[in-house]
Amino acid sequence: MSDLNGVVEVPAVTPGTAGPPCAYARLRDEKPVLRAQLPNGEMAWLISRYADVRAAFSDPRLERPLLSAWPRSDGDDAPPPCPPTFLEMTGEHHARVRRTVAPLFGRRRLVFMVPRIRAMAEELIDTMVAGAADGTADLVASYVEPLPLRVLCETTGLPYEDRDTYLPHTLALLGAAGLTKTQVLDALNALQDYASALVAGKDQAAEDYVGLLLTESRCPESDLTRDDVVSFIVTMLMAGYKTNTQHTGNALLALLTHPDELRRLREKPSEIGPAVEELLRYVPLMNAINILVAKEDFTLHDQHIRAGDAVVPVPASANRDPGAFTEPDRLDLTRSPNAHVAFGHGPHMCIGGHLTRLQLATTIQVLLERLPGIELTVPGDAIVWDESTPLRAPARLPVRW
Question: In the chain, what are the domains?
Answer without folding.
Answer: 8-400 (1.10.630.10)
